[in-house]
Amino acid sequence: MSRIIIALDRVDRSLDWYKEFVSNTQEYVAGYKFGLPFLIRYGIKGFREISRLINKEKLWIIDFKLADISYIMIKSVEPFIEMGFNAFIAHSFIGRHGSLRELKEYFLENNSKLILIYTMSHQGAFDVLDKSISIIEEVIADIRPWGLVAPATRPEMIKRAKNFLHTNGIESKILSPGIGYQGAKPGTALQYGADYEIIGRLITYSSDPISKIKEINSIHKKVVRNE
Ligand code: BMP
Question: Which atom of ligand 1 lies nearest, measured to the CA of 177?
């Protein structure tokens, strides 16, 4: 089983390139993550075309880092659920009532996964998110999302997330960005307890993405074997 989720943020390629990329890489990865760059460049039509390639076994993550009242978040994800995308990333700091509770409920009813931000990979994450981490943990302990995003660039935060989940008996997966262009080496996040590594440019800008994916999968296999 691959531990790679590819972040598809390139906007300098055609939609046909994307379709070919997804068709050719699906058998080697755990899933894909699409964000605002993809939406803005290719529109809903782009998502609809990609959705024809959806194989339900994989993770098809929509990452708009939702942070709003529940009504707006639900209206924003509805069309993607109809297309078959099955996981969605939201911020934790927006809190529970009128927001994450209803969103989580909606996802449960619609067979979809909620992924919450624990803390982020960039340096500015120190300014607010890390300082508020125990409050963020309170929200997460209540919402019990399917997954958490924690940074490979600061693996001690993955360790903290892992301990927090264990202590509270929560079974959320940990998905970790920050590999490659942001500085962390492939395998780092898994070593610290993450379940998946979210990897974008290191793969999408590679001259041979399939070889790069296979190379990372074999690094991951060694890490997982040594756990
Ligand atoms: P890249 O591997 O090219 O650096 O891409 C990282 C991906 O992970 C991007 O899609 C970004 O939105 C996402 N991400 C991140 O980099 N840091 C976070 O803390 C949370 C993210 O979702």
Answer: 8
